[in-house]
Amino acid sequence: MLKFYFSPLTSSLATHIALLECGAEYEPCPTLMSKKETRAPAYLAINPNGKVPALVTDSGRVITEVAATLYYLARSFPDAALWPEGDLEAEAEVISWMSFTASTVHGARVGGAEAFAEAFEIANTKFGDQQWAIGRFTIADIHLFRVYWRFRPTMDAPPGTYPALESHHDRMLARPAVQKAMEVENGYG
Ligand SMILES: N[C@@H](CCC(=O)N[C@@H](CS)C(=O)NCC(=O)O)C(=O)O
Fold first, then answer.
1. Atom of ligand 1 nearest to the CA of 64
2. CB 11 less than 6 A from any atom of ligand 1
3. 0.90 cut: is pTM over it?
């Protein structure tokens, strides 16, 4: 069974959402940032970068980084239709969104509110009037949602500033897998 290393309501929330979207069986392995467990030798032996998420597969291979864990799950559970299999341009677009989310959007946290404002503005423009990042629901939406959900409260942006991101956020919150992942992770206090 997959082992899922996570710290509640951090980056690993995206992987948790994907596990639930896929209906995957997994062993939860809470690794709390608040208790510095991500920096403990036992966890550094799994991910030397000291970050969650990490997934350990049945063969013992460790998959780290949100984008890679989402990709692994999407490809392992094709029935969940989280990956636009066989549509090369759409596949490239998902990778593009996830690279952008991991670097430009998540990376904006080191630059504070101004950097977030710029990153959110770009994401909002890229989105256009689509419901989902590439036009249909994929792992790119899960990744983008997690970062926007986490950092939007740190911004002083009035409603309507990022209309595409705001409606995407609400659409994501309506998904049972998102609600369940949050409920479970909130339970860790
Ligand atoms: N680039 C990484 C970022 C993951 C990340 O920043 N994880 C944070 C939680 S949001 C973490 O595990 N921090 C633990 C630490 O720094 O000790 C990814 O995409 O997985």
1. 20
2. yes
3. yes
Bridge partners, 6 (sequence order):
30
What does DSSP assign to residue 102?
I
Q: Where are the domains of the chain?
A: 2-80+177-186, 88-175
Q: Whose CA is nearest to atom 14 of ligand 1?
A: 51
* Pocket of ligand 1 contains residue 101 by CB under 6 Å: no
What pLDDT sits at residue 189? 67
Residue numbers of the chain with a pLDDT score lower than 50? none
3-class DSSP assignment, residue 126: helix
CATH class of 88-175: mainly alpha
Instruction: Give the per-residue pLDDT at 160.
Output: 95
Residue for token pair 């639930």: 20
For residue 49, list its beta bridge partners.
none
With a 6 Å cutoff on the Cβ, whether 107 touches ligand 1 is no
Instruction: Please tell me whether the peptide bond between 53 and the residue prior to it is cis, using omega within 30 degrees of 0.
Output: yes
Fold of 2-80+177-186: Glutaredoxin (3.40.30)
Q: Is 47 in the pocket of ligand 1 (CB under 6 A)?
A: no
Q: Ligand 1: distance of its center to the CA of 129 in Å?
A: 31
pLDDT of residue 128: 93
